[in-house]
Amino acid sequence: MDRHHYETFEKFGNETFLLHLDNGRAFGRHSRDEPSILAPLQQCCRIHRSTLLRLRLLSLPGFRLSDVMRESLARDPLAGAVAPFLSEPHLSALDRRLAAVLQVVRTCQDQHGDVIHNDLEGYDEEHHPQPD
Predict the structure, then answer these.
(1) Phi and psi dihedrals of 80, rounded to 5?
(2) How many CB atoms lie within 10 A of CB 115?
(3) Which residues does the UniProt record annotate as the domain FAM20 C-terminal (predicted)?
(4) Do the annotations mark residue 76 as ligand-binding?
(5) What is the pTM of this model?
(6) Of 2, 76, 119, 124, which residue is the catalytic one?
(7) What is the mean pLDDT of residues 15-38?
């Protein structure tokens, strides 16, 4: 919720760049979900196939988003100094919010035919060419 705008550095003339600021609200309150953050997905009803496949993977029991995040945070060098980065309720909220995103995609699929953009078309040929 903290990235509704962006900043630029213009000191370098026309050689500016985007800078996203993280104000520390990325995980918000674990007990309150912000449904308005799903508005772009609900309104456009479009998602890249690669994104959907990754989200579906992170919803499976063996690859749950909360587990992946917990493991990643445990490897962070700061984990010993500042622990825990995220509480268990925050980690559980990740799984609940992911389920909400996937539900929006299912609703879009029920209402519209063309929801998934196949950004992986030609991927195998491009990245894994078959020998002649």
Answers:
(1) -75, -30
(2) 19
(3) 1-113
(4) no
(5) 0.75
(6) 2
(7) 74
